[in-house]
Amino acid sequence: MKLLRRITEKITHGILFTSSMVTSITVLLVVLFLFREGIGLFNQTAIEGHLVVVVNSSNPLSQLTSKQVKDIFNQDITNWKDIAGTEGEIIPKSIDDLAGLFTEEELGTDFKNLPDLIEKYVKENPGVIAYFPETYLKKDFKGKLIPLKKISVKEFITGTEWYPTSQPAAVYGALPLILGTLWVSLGAILLALPIGLITAIYMAEVAGQRFRNILKPVVELLSGIPSVVYGFFGLVVLVPLIQKLFKLDVGETALAGSVILAIMSLPTIITIAEDAIRTTPRAMKEASLALGASHWQTLVRITIPFAKSGIIAAVILGIGRAVGETMAVLMVTGNASVIPHTFLEPVRTIPATIAAELGEASFGGTHFKALFALGIILFIMTFIFNMLVETVKTRKT
Amino acid sequence: MALALLLPAMIQAQSFKIKGSDTVLPLSQAEAEAYMKKDSKTSIAVTGGGSGVGLSAIISGTTDIAQASRSMKMDEKLKMQEAGKAFKEVIIAYDALAVVVNPANPVNQLTREQLEGIFTGKITNWKEVGGEDAKIVAYSRETSSGTYEFFKDHVLNKKNFGTNALLMPATGAITQSVSQTRGAIGYVGLAYVEKAVKALKVSYDKGKTYVAPSVASAMDKTYPITRPLYYYYLVSIEKTVSPYINYVLSPEGQKVVSQTGYVPLKK
What we know:
By secondary structure, chain A is mainly α.
């Protein structure tokens, strides 16, 4: 009998141990995967699909950044002297332009003459800059290959332009996305925290039993609404409202995202904070009241301090939802990757970027890795926030 | 018992997969449904994911037909060649892109050069293109969309969109936003043009002739922002898929094309 009990105990212990271990290991593996994929971006060039960039051999140019390549093929830079070359017009040619220069007969079957034709063309035109797949590069190519500068961590974080599909080289500057995420989350926190906490206190301490029985299911219903519905509601109702209220040219703004996120994180904050407040032992409250404290004094001095860790947990969970929320934000913030200066401008957040772009990024390519690098930044942002809350919590108790 | 019922069906059944562009997806679904009604022995599975996804799936052999809203790119052709696979390309229908503005906007027509200026962020006020003094708000699809790529290649002359362009996750979101923003301009498939937005006439010859988007003008190729929709398949499985492809190209299949809001190959 005794043996049986010990065995059951051992088994229960084992189950508890493995399930917690499995959880921790899974979390660690996910984080590890995120970092492995994301860090792969750095010390690589942003050029996709084995393309090479070439210029005429007389060109003094030795290296280009992705942004310069983008500006050249966008025809924003049109003269070689603007990028440390000699005076002369830039003739940008993509692989499709190059192939279009020649007839099908000249190209031959399977483009077998293309390498020779490209070499000849680059040799004859001193101002040319061209990109094409490496397979069309002749072994003893007479032009000059231009290496692209590698992506550095600093450039990724402080770069102000996000052009992931620019040809031939993508430009990854995450600053507008980081700031966009911060703006939207900050706005959501500022709106949701006071409203959420006040509602929680009201429901737990002030409201009558019957009213609470109505209010609580209503609040919980809010968390059951799919985020796409919130997004659509935001796009159709909130965006035109903000546009009219502030007389803006465009209603898709950071503010619209903040309001939607605030509404979405309210149920989490209210439910958890209210539960925490209600767990304050009756005896403590009664003792306070017996000593002559008023209802309000008891609430502020006894109930809330006792429930503090629960309230902080509510805040963390609510904000966690706000920072990582994707679909609703994707629909109402406009997603223009510009650096925001006020709440009344369109922004692009990190989760929205990942969700919108991951589908078409080629597996294992630089764009794919850049999106994981964004994921790392998001992870670090929430991590820092949680650490801050933890330190505040431990200092006061 | 169940096995006995299933077996003869399994022996006779022909099945293949179509994968790729989300633009072509509704069309393929309608065609496949109509075809399976006629030929109950064949089963066709249609999935989306994007033109790029479909074309890489046909290279890796995980789909039989790739549907695409753009032609195969250079490096995809190259990969095909490396894999030693011969493929065939069929144009099954056309799709026209309409440039839309808010109905309250007095502007009725734009040239390609003006569109390029607006979407790359060089033109920022409507009065620069003959409208009222108001800021232009440019709406685009997200970068993963084939429509985005097509617009970039054929209207923006391969230049990048301006950073101030608002990127929307769906065509429906663009019509919604354009209908409620006075200074807005966006682009949507012809099938999505509604009363809440106004489609502009477009000129590709520097303002000599302006053409309004319609099924008729897309069919006779006078409307310039028209793109073909493709099916790609391997020559090795031609026998399996050709009855279906012939059906799509037949008058009956082309009727499905116009019913789903796309532009048929011929009248």
